[in-house]
Amino acid sequence: MNPTRLFEIPYYQLEQGPLAASIGGKHIKGHNYSYSTEEFIKLANQVSLGLLQMGVKPGDKIALISHNNRPEWNIMDIGMAQIGVINVPIYPTISPKEYVYIFNDASIKYCFLGHGDLLEKVQKAHPSIPSLQAIFTFDKVDGQKDGKGNEVHHWETIHTDGDLTPVEKIKNSIKPEDLATLIYTSGTTGNPKGVMLSHNNILSNIRSVGPLVPIERGDIALSFLPLCHVFERVVTYAYMYLGASIVYAQSIDTLGESLKEVRPHFFTTVPRLLEKVYEKIVTKAKEGGGLKQKIFFWAEGMTADYAYDFKPSGFASVKWGLADKIVFSKVRDNLGGRVKGILTGAAACPRKMAQFFSAIGIPVREGYGMTETSPAIAVSGYKPNLALLGTVGPVIPDVTVRIDVNETAYGPDAGEIMLKGPNVMMGYYNKPEKTAEVFTEDGWFLTGDVGKLIRKNGVDFLKITDRKKELLKTSGGKYVAPAPIEGIFREDFLVEQVMVIGDNKKFVSALILPAMDTLEEWCKKNGVSTSSKDAMLKDKKVLAYYEKLVKKLNPNFSKVEQIKKFELVAGPWDVNSGHLTPTMKLKRRVILAECKELIEDIYNV
């Protein structure tokens, strides 16, 4: 059996070798639970029958929303897919107003929710959503009513046993090129767009990327990135396809505990989480003081020159062996002790993070893609000569990339990345004009990202230089890519976020959001008052620290890219405050509008 439709993946796992714990995790209430391959399929069939008895038809759309990843989400997903129902996963952090827009745009018929404030938000939005017939919850709630006064039911109330003939009839009618899911982009500007992905879009990605990752049947994969995002969603299908047991962390906040308890072989992450893990490791070493601190930084310093496929020899191998025994092995143990690989995506991975973790025996590789491309376009491999620092790896099989070179705007050999392949979306739902904007007349998909191809050892590696829409153009006509500058600044422990500004201005400047908890500790050690955030950010010693940091990092950039002035902001900048998208990207227009006066002060010279 070779799956051509998403709902066939659990059956493929059953055929290749059923797992006693195919999917599970730690419930938000703290107890562990899991489902075997057979149990997973049985529950998915019960969902399919239950939905059919409710009158749901192929093409209807159901929303799934949860703060944390959970097996119920996947069971619903497969149960819906095999009767042609379209899964519309929605970010839990968006506002009721955004729920109203998405639910109405997609004509959502039913909604299944996780814990927390989700029920309250959908209840508030419900009266403005004519298509929404009922709300179900994954956790039992008593006496709750939906936004139209009807009872809210537990998801198990739809589970139905019986003759599967109606389900099989629909399954047999579903084609690989049929719509499988509608994923709304996070919307850095304007209303989100519904990306239409077919079964074949996603499965083509799984077939291309699967052989690149070091996962074997029976391995354990830890999952904590949101399933509503295409990256983790497709990764979980790949885990099922490859025969790995999926374990969901209770939450990102308990990730450290999950790593030690689950001891995964593989997981995906975003760069910022890697940075936080690294910061904790370094902070712990500093707290040890004395000889312990010196030994750690001796070993850590060796990783600065690491490159993929590096193998020490001679006296260097003795030093690396000693560093591994004293330092690196202990770091690996803190991440469970048997991680064979980490794949990072959704944002650029700082070179230092890829070097450090890979050097200590936890291979970190970077991938690049978009919701519109299901998602992978390029992925760094774990085998020799398939990864190159500073790039996102080779373009995946069956996908063709073309660079629309514009050296005047973007530099030598660089331009917008364009592609063709079976992973490219069907289009934007209800928005044919927006769909037309991202395709050339001869069918190339326009990513909006700028990059170049770098050849090494006979392999073309894709390097991303920036988002086309985020490039700054100074009043002197010089282009500046903010992302690489911001990435280097975020490597400092006292920097949480930074946004480079300077569009149509004489010089480049920055808004710097300090890592407030770390800064508070720094202030206590350096005799600075911590009575308030504002007091800390205006203190001369604090300002001197960031001035010194800017001077230290500026030589990494060309003269036009260097930060001439900066302002410290208290924040927070996070998803809940509306400054970051759910995938941790800066909402630049929001920040520019909010910090208008600060920016005017910078340029009021």
Would you spell out the secondary-structure blueprint of this structure?
Layout (H helix, E strand, L loop, with lengths): L8 H8 L6 E4 L5 E4 L1 H17 L7 E5 L5 H11 L4 E4 L6 H11 L1 E6 L4 H8 L8 E4 L15 E2 L10 H9 L5 E6 L9 E5 H11 L10 E4 L6 H13 L2 E4 L6 H8 L3 E4 L1 H18 L1 H13 L12 H20 L6 E4 L6 H9 L4 E6 L6 E4 L20 E6 L1 H4 L4 E6 L6 E2 L3 H6 L7 E12 L2 E9 L4 E2 L5 E2 L1 H8 L5 E7 L6 E7 L1 H10 L7 H6 L1 H14 L9 E6 L19 H7 L1 H8 L2
Parallel strand pairs: 1-11, 3-4, 3-5, 5-6, 6-7, 10-11, 10-12, 12-13, 13-14, 24-25
Antiparallel strand pairs: 1-2, 8-9, 9-18, 14-15, 16-17, 17-19, 19-20, 21-22, 23-24
Helix pairs in contact: 1-2, 1-8, 2-3, 4-5, 7-8, 10-11, 11-12
Organism: uncultured Aureispira sp
Keywords: Fatty acid metabolism, Ligase, Lipid metabolism
Protein name: Long chain fatty-acid CoA ligase
Low-confidence stretches: none
The name CATH uses for the topology of the largest domain is Rossmann fold
Helical residue percent band: 25-40%
Structural class based on helices, strands and sheet pairing: alpha/beta
**Strand order in the sheet with the most strands:** 2-1-11-10-12-13-14-15
- Biggest sheet character: 8 strands, mixed
| Count, helices | 21
User: Mean of residue pLDDT?
Assistant: 91
What is the level 1 CATH name of the largest domain?
Alpha Beta
CATH architecture type of the largest domain: 3-Layer(aba) Sandwich
End-to-end distance:
69 Å
Number of domains: 3
CATH superfamily caption of the largest domain:
ANL, N-terminal domain
Rg from Cα: 25 Å
Number of strands: 25
Oligomeric composition of the shown chains:
single chain
Shape: globular
Beta fraction:
15-25%
GO molecular function: long-chain fatty acid-CoA ligase activity
InterPro entries: AMP-binding, AMP-binding_CS, AMP-dep_synth/lig_dom, ANL_N_sf
Pfam family, one: AMP-binding
Keywords: Fatty acid metabolism, Ligase, Lipid metabolism
